[in-house]
Every structure is written in structure tokens, then in C-alpha cells.
């Protein structure tokens, strides 16, 4: 049975990601009842450990279990650094569990882009995003080549406003040799407010994960067929 207001849980590592995801759901999936869970030590502890440890993976699984045992009909994990834990969660629970940028990556790979940049403002997000993107290539575009450029600007994380964050990201993209990319993917929800300004600076489409994830879950939870594709700009 399709519920009129399905409970969708979101687990966040930073408050900015929560605000971005809530805005995306209000715009793309207003029927959803949103449940936010924030652990603002997730990224700091991953940085201190040099990446995900078994203890951090178990911690995320406990958070996932908490919301799903609490009645959530679907879950969105907005922290890209913990995306690999979703693979385990999908084995343990029979509900939709989405990685932060999975829908965005699928839409980007289905599009006409040959050379794609992945930009981030926190180091752990870069390899996590690239790993997810590369893992989807055989499924979505096995017969078309793809070049991936990565750019990291930690200055963007502390920028005073979205325009300043966009300038830092654009500078990092130029330094990484990404001036000829066909599209830019934001590896963190917290960077979404800088998307429009970055698109103007880079002159190419900039895709964000929050809106794509909201559209994906809307299709999974409200459509009789159970799925709609998240369309890239």
C-alpha cells in the first residue's frame, strides 16, 4: 500500500547537509514526512582516524538501525564519506536505503557527459564519491568512456557565503586541470548552495545530490511502479 505521507529518515554528519536536504525534499517530495538524525562527530572522527574504521562503520549501522526500527519507510544517508555502509544496510534491511549521491551519479552517467569533475571541501568525500561513481559505470554506461577529475578545496568549507565557496571550488577545479569538463558533481550536500554560482564560473552544468535523491525516493515510495529516474539538468 502506498502511504500518503511516508516517513523518510535522513542521517547527517553536518547541519548544513540537513538544511540542504530538507529544502530539496520540500521542493521535490513535499508529501514525505522527514525525520532528521544528526551526528556532528562523524566527519571529524573519520578525519582523525584517516578514513572509516570498523568502529565507525558499526556506529553508522546503529544509527541506521535506530531510524528503521523506528518506522522509517526509507533512508537517505547524506554523508558521502559513509556511503559504503549502505551496501551492508541493504543486506540487513528490506527498505530503500540511498547513498547520498547515488541518484545524482546515475543521472550524470546516463547523460551526455564524457569528462566529469567531482568537487569537495572535505578530503574523505573525494575517494568515497569517486568509488561510488566508478562502481556505477558498468551498470549505467558500460560502452561509453568516462574521464573523472577530482578537485578539493577545504577553503570552501569555511567560506563566508555561497559565492565565495564557488570561487574556491572553481580555483581548485582549475588547479586540477578541470577547465574542460562537461559537468561538475558536488560531492557534499553542504556545497549545494554554491552550485549556481559555480555553474556560472565553470560554464557547465553543476549537479547536486539532494534534489536527485528526493526525486528518487519520491518515485520509490509514491509511484505504483516503484521507481522514477532522477534526471540531470
UniProtKB/TrEMBL annotation:
Transmembrane segments: none annotated. It holds the Pfam family Asp_Glu_race. InterPro entries: Asp/Glu/hydantoin_racemase, Iso_Racemase_Enz_sf. One of its GO terms (molecular function) is amino-acid racemase activity. Belongs to the HyuE racemase family. This is Asp/Glu/hydantoin racemase. It comes from Streptomyces capillispiralis.
Amino acid at each position: 500500500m502506498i502511504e500518503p505521507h511516508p516517513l523518510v529518515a535522513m542521517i547527517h554528519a553536518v547541519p548544513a547537509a540537513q538544511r540542504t536536504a530538507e529544502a530539496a525534499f520540500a521542493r521535490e517530495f513535499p508529501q514525505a514526512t522527514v525525520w532528521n538524525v544528526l551526528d556532528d562527530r562523524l566527519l571529524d572522527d573519520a578525519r582523525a582516524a584517516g578514513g572509516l574504521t570498523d568502529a565507525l562503520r558499526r556506529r553508522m549501522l546503529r544509527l541506521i538501525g535506530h531510524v528503521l526500527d523506528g518506522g522509517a519507510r526509507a533512508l537517505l544517508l547524506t554523508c558521502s564519506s559513509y556511503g559504503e555502509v549502505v551496501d551492508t544496510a541493504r543486506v540487513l534491511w528490506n527498505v530503500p536505503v540511498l547513498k547520498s549521491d547515488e541518484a545524482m551519479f546515475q543521472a550524470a552517467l546516463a547523460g551526455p557527459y564524457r569528462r566529469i569533475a567531482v568537487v569537495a571541501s572535505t578530503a574523505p568525500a573525494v575517494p568515497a564519491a569517486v568509488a561510488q561513481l566508478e562502481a556505477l559505470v558498468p551498470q549505467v554506461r558500460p560502452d561509453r568512456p568516462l574521464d573523472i577529475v577530482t578537485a578539493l578545496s577545504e577553503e570552501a568549507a569555511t567560506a563566508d557565503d555561497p559565492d565565495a565557496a564557488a570561487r574556491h571550488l572553481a580555483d581548485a577545479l582549475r588547479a586540477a586541470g578541470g577547465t574542460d569538463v562537461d559537468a561538475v558533481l558536488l560531492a557534499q550536500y553542504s556545497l549545494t548552495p554554491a552550485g549556481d554560482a559555480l555553474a556560472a564560473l565553470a560554464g557547465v552544468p553543476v549537479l547536486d545530490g539532494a534534489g536527485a535523491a528526493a526525486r528518487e525516493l519520491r518515485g520509490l515510495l509514491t509511484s505504483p511502479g516503484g521507481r522514477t529516474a532522477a534526471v540531470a539538468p
